[in-house]
Amino acid sequence: MYKGSNVIILAAYAKNRLIANEDGIPWKNDPECRELVKKDIDDLRKKIFDSSVILGRKTYEEICEIPNDPIANIWRARVVVMSRNRNYQIKKKHDFNVRRATNLEEALSKTAMQPIYILGGGEIYKEALNVEGLVDRIDITKINKSYEEKYQENNDEENGGNNLLVRFPTLGLKNWIRIRNETFFQRNVNLASFESYIKRENRHYC
Predict the structure, then answer these.
(1) Is the pLDDT of residue 154 over 60?
(2) pLDDT attached to residue 157
(3) If you write DSSP's letter for every residue of 81-111 in order, what string do you get?
(4) Which end of the chain is more exposed for a tag (fewer CB within 10 A), N or C?
(5) Residue pLDDT, tens place only, 156-198
(6) Contact, 78 vs 99, CB < 8 A?
(7) Four-residue CA torsion sign, 138, 84, 51, 40
(8) CA atoms of 141 and 120, how far apart (whole Å)
(9) How many angstroms separate the CA atoms of 26 and 147, rounded?
(10) Pairing of the two strands 189-199 and 137-143
C-alpha cells in the first residue's frame, strides 16, 4: 500500500557519516552517549508506533538485542526485514508482525500502515534515496564523536574506503531543505544534533 504513503528515513551517524563498524553501532555502548541513546530510542518508539518499518537483516538483529524486545512489545508496527537470503528466518516470536523481503520494491509492497519508516542500513538508505520521489523526509541524529581511529590506515575514501565501516550516503543538499536543527547538550558538551530534511518540492510537509 506504499503508493501515496509518506516515506521517512530515520538514521543516526557519528563523524564522517559513520553508521556502523565491525562491532555494530559504535556509540551504543559508549558511556558518554548513554543519555543520548536512551532519548533516541524513546523518540524512535514514539515515531514508529502504529506505522510500517523497513530495515535490513543486520539492523533487525541489532534491535533484537535491545532489552524488552521493542519489536514484539512496543513498536506495534508492521516490520519488513530485507535480506538477499530467501531462506532467512524471522525470529519465531515475531511471526505475527514481521515479514521478509529480498529487495526494496518487495518490502514496500508488504507495508500495511503509514507512514513508512526506513531504518537502514547503509545500502538500504542508498537504494531508497536513489529512487526518484520515494523519500519525503529524513530525520538524522548526528553524533559529534569519531569511532574510527583504529581504521584510519585503511580509510582512504578515494580508494573505496574501509569495508569494515558503513556510512550514510552523501546528501545532495541542493535537493533538500533542513527544517529542524536541535542541539543535544550533555554536561555542557555539544554531543549531538537532531536534524530533519524535506525535499524542496515538499515544502508543505511537516
Answers:
(1) no
(2) 47
(3) EE-S-TTPPPPGGGTTTEEEESSHHHHHHT-
(4) C
(5) 444 345 567 999 999 887 889 999 999 999 888 899 999 999 9
(6) yes
(7) negative
(8) 13
(9) 7
(10) antiparallel
Model pLDDT for residues 44-94, shown as the tens digit of each residue: 888 888 899 999 999 998 888 776 677 777 678 889 999 999 999 998 888
| Nearest in space to 27 (alpha carbons), one of 126, 201, 143 | 143
Supply 118's cell numbers.
526506513
Phi and psi at residue 180, in whole multiples of 5°?
Answer: -145, 140
Cell of 51: 506505522
Nearest residue to 101 via CA among 91, 93, 111, 114: 111
pTM, 2 dp: 0.88
151-to-32, 157, 165 alpha-carbon distances in Å: 21, 12, 8
Span 100-122, pLDDT tens digits: 999 999 999 999 888 999 999 99
Angstrom distance (rounded) from CA 77 to CA 119? 13
Torsion angles phi and psi, residue 41, rounded to 5:
-70, -40
